[in-house]
What does this fold into?
Amino acid sequence: MLDGRTWMVYARTMIAVGTVAPAFSLKDHLGRTVSLEQFKGKQHVLLLLYPLDFTPT
Amino acid sequence: MGLSIDSVFSHANWAASLGGVSFPLLADFHPKGEVAKAYGAYLEQAGITDRATVIIDAGGVVRYSVGVTPAGQRDIEELAAECEKIDAAYEGAKEALPSGAAPSGDKLFIKSNCGFSRAVSLARTNLHLEDAIPVVNVSEDAAAKDELEKLAGKSQAPCLIHDGKPMFESADIIETLRNQTQGW
It folds into this structure.
């Protein structure tokens, strides 16, 4: 089991605030195609990235 | 929306085990982690996505971007405050959020100590249908049991009265509930 400190050494550079969000188009859990473009001019998007299904969020 | 490197199949089963989710779980599966990489949240050494949160305003600009490590936890209160702040600062075009599902006339009957009842009840909550579909427990409420017998012809629970007709299979009930959610 990796503790919090171990994870911290893993390189990551989160995307910077103020940049244009990279476009994406992916299938969701019901097989629907969801793209960021669909929300443009309509709604804000809260993107919750997480390690794996079936684990505590 | 949720996003991980899991497949549609895994997402579908996880969502089902949670009693449904009211937002898309995105499968960043193939090419693996491509979107997470674009957002700087892919942990190359571990082969998984960081636990990270990105808020993109309706204009398509990143307004919040924080990773907390897989072992960490999101600060939900901070996120709620950020959402309010970002919405207040946003001056571009956006549509009003869909309002919650209106009461549909459907009614859900459940009983205590029953896995199927728990599953459909959880689905109702996770799909934000609390205001749309009332739920009663026939194990605790004699009047509800009488009502169920009258409406369905028997007191079997779980039962969803949908468009005036009884539905007893929990998988059918959950599918019907899912079809009543707004938007996603």
The interface with chain B takes residues 2-4, 7-8, 10-22, 24, 26-32, 34, 36, 39-54, 57 of chain A (CB under 8 Å). Chain A has a mean pLDDT of 87. The helical segments of chain A are 4-8. The CA atoms of residues 16 and 22 of chain A lie 11 Å apart.
